[in-house]
Amino acid sequence: MKLLSQLRTSSFQLALLYMVVFATSVFILLAFIYWRTAGFMAAQTDETIEAEIAGLAEQYRGRGVNGLITIIRERVARDPNAKSIYLLTTDDFLKLAGNIETWPEGSRSESGWINFTLDESVGWTGAKRLARGRIFEVQGGLRLLVGRDVDELTNLKRVIETAINWGMGITLALALLGGFMMSRSTTRRIEVINNTSRRIMNGHLSLRIPTRGTDDDFDQLAGNLNQMLDRIVYLMEGIRHVSDSIAHDLRTPLTRLRNQLENTLMAVDNDEAREQAGRAVAEADQLLATFNALLRIARLETRGNTADMKPVALDELVADAGELYEALAEDKEQTFKQSLAPDVMLEGDRDLLFQMISNLIDNAIKYTPEHGTIGVNVRKEGGEAVFEVSDSGIGVPDDEKDQVFQRFYRVGKSRSLPGNGLGLSLVSAVAEIHKGRIILTDTYPGEDLPGLTVTVRMPAFNGIGKRIKTAQAELPAGTDEPRNAPEISSH
């Protein structure tokens, strides 16, 4: 798998392109060397044949036909290895002199050059060999063939071709190996940057990308990214300081205002004034809930995965939340169904997980009309712990499913219902801390009320942990485990 990912990297593709250019250059160079070498040896052979023809022609002019026959026989006798090929015949192909018996068959050019094979068909008694020669007519109707054995030249060409092929293969192998090693070195440094960046995105803001001290391109990139991270951390600290100041300066006055409105509600006797004061208290509660939700999301996003992670029984946590919300579903005459597989463990922050579960169940009940159906499911699939809440409510359009996790975003159909658009933002932040992913699908696709199914998948706990209820049973008498109250929030 790592090899396939290595082959898909841009550094390897660049190295591969360099390899192709390098291999093409080597091939052109070797082809040029071959062309020059083979051409030179072939030209030498032709020049040798031409020189012999010139010598024979001179003998013919000085000594006539008999002298030509004599010199051919002498040359044949001096050349026991038969490097030179001679054949002199009459016009009716009767042999007069030479070391072959008959005219060979072969490819013949218009200039008289012929490539042929020395074998039994021409009266050759030795091993089969390749030859090249030239044919021309002598005055008096005689025919003369002068040639050379080119078998060694042909074999040499084959050796050169084989060497070129092996050279190209070795060149490609070395280029591929060099490209792989070069891309691997580059990929390692890029992977260091990617891994550090992912850890920083998960909340480890104190980390910085390591450098080698070589001041190369990667060191310069790492230095720039580190400076950018320092600046981001500085700005985030400033924002966090402002948020804390807002929390200190506004939450207390809001709480005081809410308490005064509640005292007014209890003091007034007029029904209309009591109703107005009640609405004001509800608005103040909504403001406080929105403000607390914003601060909670901000804290979750900045703390990353540094939450108090312990083995948690997801099925028991969902069962506890179900007990709280089942009565709320009964008030709306909704059917509340639970399917909780036992022993579904994950490593997480119990309080944060309870908030996430409560928000999702509360949303399902809130946005499902009376007589609807709410389904809560816990199961384990492979190495994942799965928590799923489905409803038969108004649902979320497909083009808005990716936007509902944004702060204050509300689906158009739900704007008439109370809420602040922060519920799923909080759910998303909790899921991210637990390395989970959220999937939104329609419960009843194509229906007027398609409903919504929210599936949260988180890594299951693979260690050997005790069940939560067992641990609670071992607590000293009178000890209660603290639990956060459920949050009332919206899509």
Characterization of this structure:
This protein has nine helices and 13 strands. Strands 2-1-6-5-4-3 form a six-stranded antiparallel beta sheet. The longest helix has 69 residues, at 10-78. Strand 5 and strand 6 form a beta hairpin. The chain is rod-shaped. The chain has three domains: 2-155, Beta-Lactamase; 217-298, Orthogonal Bundle (Helix Hairpins); 307-473, Heat Shock Protein 90, CATH 3.30.565.10. Helix 2 (10-78) packs antiparallel against helix 3 and helix 7 (350-366) runs antiparallel to helix 8. It is α+β, with helices and mostly antiparallel strands and 491 residues long.
Concise description?
This protein has 491 residues and is of the alpha+beta class.
List key phrases describing it:
491 residues, alpha+beta, Beta-Lactamase, Helix Hairpins, Heat Shock Protein 90, 5-stranded mixed β-sheet, 53% helix, disordered C terminus
What is the topology?
Blueprint: H1 2-7, H2 10-78, E1 84-89, E2 95-98, E3 106-108, E4 113-118, E5 129-138, E6 142-149, H3 151-201, H4 217-267, H5 271-303, E7 310-313, H6 314-331, E8 335-340, E9 345-348, H7 350-366, E10 373-381, E11 384-391, H8 423-433, E12 437-441, E13 453-459, H9 468-473
Parallel strand pairs: 8-10
Antiparallel strand pairs: 1-2, 1-6, 3-4, 4-5, 5-6, 7-9, 10-11, 11-13, 12-13
Helix pairs in contact: 2-3, 4-5, 5-8, 6-7, 7-8
As a percent range, the share of strand residues is 15-25%
The helix-strand sequence is HHEEEEEEHHHEHEEHEEHEEH
What does the overall shape look like? rod-shaped
By DSSP (H or I, 4+ residues per run), the number of helices equals 9
The total domain count is: 3
Largest sheet: 6 strands, antiparallel
CATH architecture of the largest domain: 2-Layer Sandwich
Quaternary structure classification: single chain
Structural class: alpha+beta
- Ends apart, CA distance between termini: 40 Å
Strand tally, please?
13
Question: Mind telling me the CATH superfamily name of the largest domain?
Answer: Histidine kinase-like ATPase, C-terminal domain
Average pLDDT, to the nearest integer? 78
Q: Which fold name fills CATH's third level, the topology of the largest domain?
A: Heat Shock Protein 90
Rg over CA atoms: 47 Å
Residue share in helices? 40-55%
User: What is the class of the largest domain in the CATH system?
Assistant: Alpha Beta
